[in-house]
Amino acid sequence: MHLPAPPPEAPEEAARVSAARQPSPTVRDEAATAPAPVKKARAPRARRATPPRGVRPAPALGADERARLLEGRHHDPHAVLGARAQRGGVAFRVLRPYATAVTVVAKGLRAELLDDGDGLFSGLLPLAEVPEYRLLVTYDSDEIEIHDPYRFLPALGELDLHLIGEGRHEELWTALGAQPMEHQGVDGTRFTVWAPNAQGVRVTGDFSYWDSVAYPMRSLGSTGVWELFLPGVGAGTLYKYDITRPDGSHTLRADPMARSAEVPPANASVVTASRYEWQDAAWMAERGTRPPHQAPFSVYELHLASWRPGLSYRQLAEQLPAYVKELGFTHVELMPVAEHPFGGSWGYQVTGFYAPTSRMGTPDDFRFLVDSLHRAGIGVIVDWVPAHFPRDDWALAEFDGRSLYEHQDPRRAAHPDWGTLEFDYGRKEVRNFLVANAVYWCEEFHVDGLRVDAVASMLYLDYSRKEGEWSPNEHGGRENLDAVAFLQEMNATVYRRCPGVVTIAEESTAWTGVTRPTDSGGLGFGLKWNMGWMHDTLRYMSKEPVHRKYHHHDMTFGMIYAFSENYVLPISHDEVVHGKGSLVSRMPGEDWWQRRAAHRAYLGFMWAHPGKQLLFMGQEFAQGSEWSEVYGPDWWLLDSSYAAAGDHRGVRDLVRDLNRTYTAAPALWERDTVPEGFAWVEADAADDNVFAFLRYAQDGSQLLAVSNFSPVVRHGYRIGVPEEVPLWREVLNTDLEVYGGSGIHHTQPLRPEPVPAQGRPASLRMTLPPLATVWFRPQG
């Protein structure tokens, strides 16, 4: 569930001309530091009456070509700018708005070009061939020497263009976007962007004081890619693309492939290059040794920006790994970290799919955080949002003047719930953009998993749409076949390229085969959120104990389909927002002791149940208020000065012990996805609010879980067990005093008695604590 983005704001580029938008100090070369003042008008300048010595007029541009160049509609500016040999010498033409003079400088050559007006300078020099030259550009108060961007060959190879055209470039981020590089012996940045409907594209930024005229890009054929190499532009440079739409109007856009962006609400793209040296080789080598569905997998979900509000990625790296490791979680799941303009969307309305949000630091800072978690033995899952994107007019919506990333059919382009747009999964370039993005996060940031958001909204053409608001597929059905093919391709590509990575679907329907391999017709995910289990069990827990017997099936129904997919049991952020309250506040009663006891008992039931676990931040210590992205968790509840701090610390200690006991008990995770790993012992004790089941490891070792969701102590309660186990010892009890419970527990191992119970020949006679879950293992 996501919040809508705020109304998009038109970019105020005039403001960028202010002192606050002067060239970045990290722009290192002359082309990026031209000091020419920005002016509003370009009054034509008269030709010089007497040409400089040795410089003759170059062939004049036709009126139409001149207009297309100056208006940003020229598809091949390199054909008219730069230098080229021709009859009578070498012709030079330069576009430098606001310059007063431009001089060609080479070995043994210094020739001032003629002023053609509108920032154009040209001349024909009596040379036999094009020299290695530079340009000396004079402004009213300054003079700079630069390389001419229009003397360079394309910096994008034919193989890249072929793969882009085929929609099969699995490393798309290396071909599109802003790429610092050395080209023809010169340092600079290659800018490339896909805009097939554009009449022309120009790159602008702080290197040009946000004047768009000087740097038109060239079209690289039928791929729709535009390219320009700018010498001297380096990391830290701010930039955007000025796109001339099919109707001749202009739109200023952030780079869809930007690897970094300004801190919102600013939205320019930032040239970046990673210099990070990873220290997690051992983790990366080991992470794929055991399939996730057969391994311990316990996830702490968090929103990075509010976990400890105000901390940077590097500051988080000092605190988060230690906290998560102490609690025993195997993984963290980060709500979306891709760049997004509106913090209230929690990251689910993405504008920069290739850029970690700059709110907390640079992309390398984010790499440092992931590396730190890995070195602490913790896997990193990130939420990934290919289902939709916001309509901000500086981002992806109608990027080049027409529907491009979104579907052309309005009935398939608009997301009905969130006021956003849906991707056109049938367009090969869009599919490539998303598939490569999934690979990018895994390869460039070493993430160990992608939790794919809102999969159900992708799979169904009629999702949240009424009759007449959607069109069926070619077979007359409601399945979005393009989305199915995209998800299969994404999963197959990620699993092939990134060993050890797991993909997880947030899919809330009964779609068949979500975690079935793609070669068997499935979607190919590794795990799926079990939304039905979550809704059913929380409904049961929300009832007063006296009424729970009428909802007993809510706790047992999930076992009917528990092995149809590889499941995660999610108590996620969606369950503690929008008026739902926190997990503990959803427990009934005015007595906070009973609420916290029910909270603990539910976690004990959940950790023992087939499926992996996910718990959202703040719920590990039973905070009473629902989550706010502004304030984050109520850490003050753990402060010793707070009277009830011990109770909250007790719940946190229970979560720690749940994770440690769980990880040490293969019966709880080795056979999560097969019926042989589970057996009901007591599923029908509705009047007692009691449940009991056995879990089995691959070697046959067992764990018995018993839950009493009644607030009364049940003495002498019989639970049937296998007769071959001589002794059972209590290994976890959510009612211990150290957790804030009443302290009813079994100090000695229990010996089975030859008294039949629940269809088994032997049974344990035990005392069930109130509102508690107890785990037993055979005495070793």
Automatic annotation (TrEMBL):
Residue ranges constituting the Glycosyl hydrolase family 13 catalytic domain according to the UniProt record: 301-656
Record InterPro entries = A-amylase/branching_C, Branching_enzy, GH, GH13_cat_dom, GlgB, GlgB_N, GlgB_N_E_set_prok, Glyco_hydro_13_N
Keywords per UniProt: Carbohydrate metabolism, Glycogen biosynthesis, Glycogen metabolism, Glycosyltransferase, Transferase
**Domain of life per record:** Bacteria
Select a single GO molecular function from the record's annotations and give it: 1,4-alpha-glucan branching enzyme activity
The biological pathway it contributes to is:
Glycan biosynthesis; glycogen biosynthesis
Instruction: Return the Basic residues bias intervals.
Output: 39-50
Keyword check for Glycosyltransferase, yes or no: yes
EC no.? 2.4.1.18
Q: Where is the signal peptide?
A: none
Q: Which PANTHER family match?
A: 1,4-ALPHA-GLUCAN-BRANCHING ENZYME (PTHR43651)
**So what does this one do?**
Catalyzes the formation of the alpha-1,6-glucosidic linkages in glycogen by scission of a 1,4-alpha-linked oligosaccharide from growing alpha-1,4-glucan chains and the subsequent attachment of the oligosaccharide to the alpha-1,6 position.
| Family as reported in the entry's similarity comment | Belongs to the glycosyl hydrolase 13 family. GlgB subfamily.
**Subunit structure, as described in the record:** Monomer.
The protein, known as: 1,4-alpha-glucan branching enzyme GlgB
Originating species = Streptomyces virginiae (Streptomyces cinnamonensis)
